[in-house]
Specification:
The chain is an alpha/beta fold and 415 residues long. It has three domains: 124 residues, 2-Layer Sandwich (Nucleotidyltransferase, domain 5); 93 residues, ATPase, nucleotide binding domain (Nucleotidyltransferase, domain 5); 144 residues, Aminopeptidase, CATH 3.40.630.30. The strands form three sheets. It has a seven-stranded mixed β-sheet, with helices on both faces. It has a five-stranded mixed β-sheet with strand order 3-2-1-4-5, sandwiched between helices. Helix 7 packs across helix 8. The longest helix has 18 residues. It is elongated. The N and C termini lie far apart (52 Å).
């Protein structure tokens, strides 16, 4: 029995369809049609499908499954491919196979450059508005791909910073080896020639590819044969970007990216005296009784472990920890209001834990106001438990005092 899989790709300006046919003996035949049809995908897609099938002497009833480029990409194009795939699935009672469009770019590059078969592909696709879609894939033993970084949105100017951190932030990237940049967004990103990866890895720039229907079809056929498909009702585009139309004020505030993507383009470095004004300003913005600039300056002079998180050239969060002989004490941690819920606090906490473990300290201790429900929830999510109460520890309005809850996290192996 021959399997016929139809593939649709309309995430960009090119409207593409492909037919991948595999016989029982493994022989594969591929046919495709493409048209650069910006704004015409809805009108052209189905006629191109019928033309392609007719050229192979097949009707729609011969199809075993339909795959589509899921995105990310242009909103309208993604909806067209998904909608057509769903319609054909309903009408023909065949399964749908969504394929991430960025993975299709990795597949295209692997097909065109077999000499780079073992390279990790970092796919960078133009997302407009000075941003790129990014994902990372490593080849697996079966000829497919392991997803190291799911598709996310990133400022184009932050790609070098992301790459410089990649060996520490991505699970599965070798400490040394090749990261191959492919996609039409690579040319939009400055500063790529000076990147140094942790562990001595090498960054090389590949071609500015976009996804096509053939790559979507190859991946779709593999997924279909593995049973990784779905019914029409469960198929959906992968948008990544939550919002397209941002006001001028929102853009000036740094918005325009995906607020759900944690830690994008954020780097940590030791706090210096020059950071104290920004750190104190963040502290004042989030605390009713904040540390002063003098407190932070004195902490640095005393040798406390101070760290700042910075993004787009500004400090957006910080932490300060006292390392005692038998325990690490997280004294203060804060994230700027407009950078909260993006993983910055998590990155700072994890770095504090890492520093404590490097010093052989088994626990991380902190105090928090019981009235600060957001902070309590945050620390509990990160494994801290209340172990004591310090009576009247914090100042409160009108000269009152508030208790402090003492929370601790064990940093034993595996915690």
């Amino acid at each position: 029995m021959t399997v016929h899989l139809l593939a649709l790709e309309t995430s960009g300006s090119v409207c593409g369809v492909a037919l991948i046919s595999r016989r029982a003996d493994g022989q594969t035949t591929i046919s495709k049609l493409e048209h650069d049809a910006t704004g015409e995908h809805a009108e052209r897609l189905l006629p191109m499908v019928d033309e392609l099938l007719a050229g192979r002497g097949l009707g729609r009833q011969a199809l075993s499954a339909v795959a589509f480029g899921q995105g990310p990409g242009g909103f309208t194009g993604l909806r067209v491919a998904c909608g057509v795939a769903q319609g054909m699935s309903f009408a023909l009672q065949i399964p749908v196979v969504p394929v991430v469009s960025l993975m299709a770019v990795a597949q295209r590059d692997a097909d065109a450059h077999p000499g780079h078969a073992q390279a990790v592909r970092v796919v960078v696709q133009d997302a407009r508005m000075g941003e790129v879609y990014l994902a990372a894939y490593a080849p697996d033993a079966a000829g497919g791909w392991n997803t190291l970084q799911a598709p996310m949105l990133l400022a184009a100017s932050d790609l070098p910073l992301w790459l410089a951190q990649v060996s520490e932030t991505l699970h599965g990237v070798p400490s040394s080896g090749t990261l191959r940049l492919v996609g039409d967004g690579v040319a939009l990103c400055p500063g790529l020639d000076d990147i140094q990866l942790a562990g001595g890895g090498v960054v090389e720039q590949g071609p500015g590819l976009r996804p096509d229907a053939v790559a979507v079809g190859k991946l779709g056929l593999s997924l279909f044969l593995q049973g990784r498909h779905m019914t029409a009702g469960h198929a959906a585009p992968l948008y990544v970007r939550d919002k397209v139309a941002f006001t001028t004020r929102e853009r000036q505030q740094g918005q325009g990216g995906n607020p759900k993507a944690p830690g994008l383009g954020v780097a940590l470095r030791p706090m210096g005296q020059g950071d104290v004004p920004e750190v104190a300003a963040i502290e004042a913005a989030v605390q009713a009784f904040p540390w002063t600039a003098g407190n932070f300056a004195d902490g640095l002079k005393a040798g406390y472990g101070g760290w700042v998180a910075h993004q787009h050239g500004r400090v957006i969060g910080f932490s300060m920890t006292l390392y005692a002989p038998d325990i690490a004490h997280l004294l203060v941690l804060a994230v700027a209001p407009d950078a909260q819920r993006e993983g910055v606090g998590t990155a700072l906490v994890r770095h504090c834990e890492k520093e404590a473990l490097a010093r052989g300290l088994p626990d991380l201790l902190l105090e928090v106001r019981p009235s600060n429900l957001q902070a309590l929830a945050f620390y509990r999510r990160h494994g801290f438990e209340r172990i004591a109460i310090r009576k009247d520890y914090y100042p409160a309005p009108e000269g009152a005092r508030e208790d402090g809850w003492v929370m601790r996290k064990s940093l034993a192996s595996g915690a």
